[in-house]
Amino acid sequence: MRSEPTRRAALALALGLLALPAQAQDATGKKPLRIGIIGAGKIGGTIGTLWVKAGHEVMFSSRHPEELKGLVEGLGERARAGTPAEAIRFGEAILVAVPYKAYPQLKADYGEALKGRIVLDAGNATQARDGDLYAEVSANGIGATSAKYLADARLVRAFNAANYRVFEANANRPAPRMAVPIAADDEAALEMGKRLVSDAGFDPVAVGTLRDADRFAMGSPGFGHNLSAPDLSAKLGLAP
Fold first, then answer.
1. In whole angstroms, what is the distance from residue 151 CA to residue 168 CA?
2. What is the C-alpha R_g of the chain?
3. Pairing of strands 118-121, 154-157
4. Distances from the Cα of 27 to the Cαs of 24, 30, 31, 47, 62, in angstroms?
């Protein structure tokens, strides 16, 4: 028979393990993340909502965070509203989902705060809206242009290859899930991007570096597809 001290020690150990935070007990290491979203419009609101439903904590941001009250109250305790500066401080990863014409101002206001941070870049440049920036993207590529305005961020191009309604309608659909192409220069940032695409309810397809992001930029042959990961990979000419 085990002695009383031994039983007490075993009980104390068990209680101690139960008291550990969830992330310490998770053998996969995949604890819920804190995600900051700059721009709570159609893409930011749609993808952020999917992340909240997946269990992440999300701060939606605006220069007027009080205008986001309806959005965050409808999503529950894991959603909150703040300013862009607060969202950057809050997030372990950041989603940028603002009109592309805002990128120079984004750099001026938050460039320093974004240095070294993992940033998912969902922006697209359009001629009618973005003027000179559209010409810059046409000349240099979307990945290089985003890297210029989000300098020294650990950038991942993601969630820019389809309309928000497509993401909304196809998230977490039965297999085969919809594929989302992504590109990055930073391997760790790319892995984070893959996880966040997956957690939003899609299958990530890594296309290559930021230079390769042109292959699924708006207006390219790789843009606007609702395909499975194998079919999108084939469409983009990626090795199986």
1. 30
2. 20
3. parallel
4. 8, 8, 10, 27, 36
Bridging pattern class, strands 34-38 and 118-121? unpaired
How much is the average pLDDT of 215-223?
A: 95
Residues 6+ apart with CB under 8 A from 97: 37, 38, 39, 40, 41, 43, 44, 47, 122, 123, 159
CA atoms within 13 A on the CB side of 136: 17
Q: Are 44 and 60 in contact (CB under 8 A)?
A: yes
How distant, in Å, are the alpha carbons of 53, 70, 71, 131 from that of 76?
10, 11, 9, 39
CA–CA distance, 61 with 87 (Å, rounded to integer): 6
Instruction: State the average pLDDT over residues 147-151.
Output: 96
Q: Does position 4 have pLDDT exceeding 70, yes or no? A: no
Note the pLDDT tens digit of each residue in 46-90: 999 999 999 999 999 999 999 999 999 999 999 999 999 999 999
What would the two tokens of residue 43 be? 């893409």
CA distances to 113, 163, 240 from 8, rounded to whole Å, are 50, 59, 56
Q: How far apart are CA 162 and CA 224, in angstroms?
A: 5
The pLDDT tens digits for 89-112 are: 999 999 999 999 999 999 999 999
> What pLDDT score does 126 carry?
94
CA-based end-to-end distance of the chain: 60
